[in-house]
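Order emerges. As here.
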Amino acid sequence: MHVSKSPLEIRGDFCYKNRMDTLFSLKTDKPLADRMRPTRLEDVVGQAHLLDDKGPLTRMIRSGRLSSFILWGPPGVGKTTIARILADQTQLHFEALSAVFSGVSELRKVFAEAQSRRKMGRGTLLFVDEIHRFNRSQQDGFLPYVEDGTVILVGATTENPSFELNGALLSRCKVFVLNRLDSDALDRLVTRAEETVGHALPLDDVGRAYLKNLADGDGRYFINLLEAVFSYAEPHEILDKAALENLLQKRLPNYDKDREEHYNLISAVHKSVRGSDPDAALYWFARMVAAGEDMKYLLRRLTRIASEDVGLADPGALVQAQAAWQAFERLGHPEGDLAVAGLVVYLATAPKSVGIYKAWNKALETARQTDSLMPPKHILNAPTRLMKDLGYHAGYVYDPDTKDGFSGQNYFPDEMKRITFYDPPERGFEREIKRRLAYWNDLRRKKQKKE
């Protein structure tokens, strides 16, 4: 009786058949990442928006006119590979520098050699990795050589060029954004790795999904993970997620507290809370906590949200922020994290209002324009006879003693018309505040008519 094999059994047989011939060579050959490095633009995965038939880099090669540009994207998405291929396909000499390890002397040497090479009729593509690491003066040093065509500059950066590169340098370079590798792109790398190694990846489907998730869109890191799996899995062995977790160390998130990713994530937290989406807010908050963000920084931002975005629509928001802060300081991490997570959900589900925010900014602007005006004399205290003689405190009405608890007196400078700074929306607790203000405004108008 014939029994058909499962896909995993077939994959295992394939692994065993080819393992004996390739395991030793795998350990002595070049790293898998080097053996898999593309030699054509069409083999670079995940960047079709730049490299397909209508992509700007493909057009640049077809035109035969390569200009300087910046490749901006996360680690391991093909920045170096693209630069190498462009140099090969345009017959330019490829020169690579890392801004981490290079200084002024290295730059001078590179530029001098490029000038000599140019006299002999060959151009130079200068690839500068981590170009944002060069200081402003060093970046200025590129300008004359880029302008006169001594080098075609291809800079690679993981940071936002708008913040990290000189405006003068940016104005002379196009900026191309590279994407983090998605699931389909990683699947293509798996296929290519299997073809390169000569046998199937010894993972079940859940293990493959876990491996892709662990890579977090970083192709170079993903290939290193693949190499580890190919190297250490036993013959006939098909690894599952549990086996992978024992084999591999979990990767820390790509996160730097003084770089753009930090600001991107806190912006995502803030806008998710403001947009009343507690699930998204919790997700981005968890991303920051998992990356090791300082909880005090998060609490400062959440307390600001309580004042700026919730405001008096829910006066309890600020109280909740203070309580969560106090709870975290007493409990610490990780026990105190739950109190802050509760605050995130409270703020996200609270009614939102920028009534106080707008009122405060308007009041500040008016105060700057009228900073020399005195308060009206009737609301000034008169502790001396001279001040009484000058009319200080004369005519002041003590509001709680009036019939309505409201005198309607003027509290603005005499030379200044009354201005409405605070106009609460019909939302949350501010509905009640709006009702009170309307009542007092009506009383004020009536009293002014009597006068």
Notes: The chain has a mean pLDDT of 86.
